[in-house]
Amino acid sequence: MLRIAIQKSGRLSEESIKLIKECGIKINNGKGKLKSAASNFPLQILYLRDDDIPGYVYDNVADIGIVGENVYLEKSLDVQAILKLGFSKCRLSLAIPKDKSYNGLDFFKGKNIATSYPNITRKYLDSNGIEADIHEISGSVEIAPGIGLADGICDIVSSGSTLLTNGLREVETILKSEAVLIGPMIFDKSKQEILDNLLFRIKSVQQGRNNKYILLNAPNDKIPEIISILPGMKSPTVVPLAMEGWSSLHSVITEDQFWDIISNLKNAGAEGILVVPIEKMIM
Ligand code: PRT
Ligand code: ZN
């Protein structure tokens, strides 16, 4: 049995549960539950506050966990980041009142910075040779400059609208963060086997999310040109259509690639282009 700790409720919880379910693992995640067991995979899920997850993994209360890199790095415990998960993306940034002029990091010399991330902030300032006072506060960091508690803040930014409504502007990005799967430095053999199976499933889901199945029709004489436009992968499947002289081409491309090549495909004579999501992809 492998125990995974995920956030009980918040910005990580929905995507964490979705990922587990997309791995084909059946869980009953009723409201208010503290833990649940999967019915078709040796996995137990513990629902916790995100800040506690690295500590629980370190103490072996949970075997693995899902947290933001920001929390993982702030706790700086002896646990490892096993895999980036691609959701709950955000950044940790320094921000100052928008009417203050900013001429680089020297601005912060001898200033007060309010943050819930004192360790990451301190490390960043130290590595840049800036001495500043760090005020650790646990929430509503963005109001600190407005009430005279600090000259600037270091906080999580996503859209930037929280900064804007509090009269602040982002001046430095310290860290780009996304959800990560964390675990201990060393696993038991039996746990490692379950983890390997889980990682195989997660990677198949991730590959599926990043790729699309593309189908298109083309006159046979256009096929070589169309194949030259379709990026990467092995050669596409070419299936004859009922209509004489026409074929259907099937291939796999990443979503970004699709938007880059769509007009080239059309110009080369492709018609009836379908782009279909892939549920899982095993490389
Ligand atoms: O209760 P618990 O302790 O479990 O949850 P929490 O309240 O500490 O965390 P939660 O759910 O807010 O965030 C969990 C994780 O999501 C964070 O550790 C980040 O890795 C990630 N994440 C992604 C964010 C954001 N986006 C985000 N926008 N975490 C926080 N915010 C906050 C930020 O603190 C600020 O107040 O949203 C505000 C900024 O958002 P914008 O869009 O206005 O810029
Ligand atoms: Zn938290």
Written description of the protein model:
The chain is of the alpha/beta class. It folds into three domains: 118 residues, D-Maltodextrin-Binding Protein, domain 2 (3-Layer(aba) Sandwich), CATH 3.40.190; 88 residues, Periplasmic binding protein-like II (D-Maltodextrin-Binding Protein, domain 2, 3-Layer(aba) Sandwich); 67 residues, 2-Layer Sandwich (Alpha-Beta Plaits), CATH 3.30.70. Helix content is 28%, strand content 33%. The protein is built from eight helices and 15 strands. The strands form three sheets. Strands 2-3-1-4-11-5 form a six-stranded mixed sheet. A five-stranded mixed sheet has the order 8-7-9-6-10. The radius of gyration is 24 Å and the shape is flat. The relative contact order is 0.14. Zinc ion binds next to loops. The site of phosphoribosyl ATP (PRT) has 21 residues, from helix 3, strand 9 and helix 5.
